[in-house]
Amino acid sequence: MATSGIEEIRVVLVGKTGRGKSALGNSLLRSKHSFKSAASGESITSRCTINHLDMQNGKKLVVVDTPGLFDTRVSNAKTSRELVRCVALASPGPHAFLFVLSVDRFTKEELDTIDHLQELFGNDVMNFVIVVFNHKDTLEYEEKTLEEHIQSSPQGLQNLIRRCGGRMTTINNRVQPGSNEPDVNAIISLVEQVKHSNGGNYYTEAMFEAAEEVFQTKLENLKAELAKQGKRLTEYEMRDTILKEVEENDGILVTFAKGIEKTFVKTGKAFKGAWRTIISVFK
């Protein structure tokens, strides 16, 4: 949810479990501990979380980290909860989805992940996807550019890059915060390019529209409650209060799920099978 007077850049990190999404989030936020991260391929992130950075140019960078949302080893109920949480945290919509891959390996599961993303959020979502390769140091060791790496990669990866409009970059997250500043700046620049190419707009669909409606209602309710108590919070503080509840309280997700279902019905948009299954978990 954007705050008045300050321009937000919202990104959602997606990708297979263990590909370095949390490490990328920490690099973007110039921090080692914004998101829990480990060097192993084991997932530490168990639910969607959000953090932000007030950038020197006056903009606010908002990063939503996700677990392996399409990991077949995770129960349908948990996946459904986290998808709704992701939509709520990224409200009113992300300016880019950063699809995190490893330079070292590419599997069919990566292709499945991007297919699931497109199935859930619609074909237009591909206009907002940037592929970010982790382990840039591997390319440096092999004395290869990213473009050379892609040319010698499986056809499936080349096709994936094409589906994303050729938008790709790489980063080394295995360094101290700030040491990879050129890589971070390259990613932010790509996000700005995506934003510009989409008319300055963030990605929105029925599910994000619904989340924003619920968010605004909760904001107004919080204002009224605080007024009764003779208290006052800034818009930042109220926003953070609601976001923290979304992060930590599964109960609030029911409200967002119902809002998503209601918006699909109200707008007459196709209630896709995937979302029908997701919403059914909350009934």
UniProtKB/TrEMBL annotation:
Q: Does the keyword Nucleotide-binding apply?
A: yes
Q: Which InterPro entries match?
A: G_AIG1, GIMA/IAN/Toc, P-loop_NTPase
Arranged from A to Z, the UniProt key words for this protein are: GTP-binding, Nucleotide-binding
CDD domains attached here? AIG1
Q: Which SUPFAM superfamilies match?
A: P-loop containing nucleoside triphosphate hydrolases
Every AIG1-type G domain range? 6-212
Q: Which GO terms describe its molecular function?
A: GTP binding
Q: Which Pfam families match?
A: AIG1
Q: Which family, according to the similarity comment?
A: Belongs to the TRAFAC class TrmE-Era-EngA-EngB-Septin-like GTPase superfamily. AIG1/Toc34/Toc159-like paraseptin GTPase family. IAN subfamily.
Q: Which PANTHER family match?
A: GTP-BINDING PROTEIN A, GTPASE, IMAP FAMILY MEMBER-RELATED
Q: What is this protein called?
A: AIG1-type G domain-containing protein
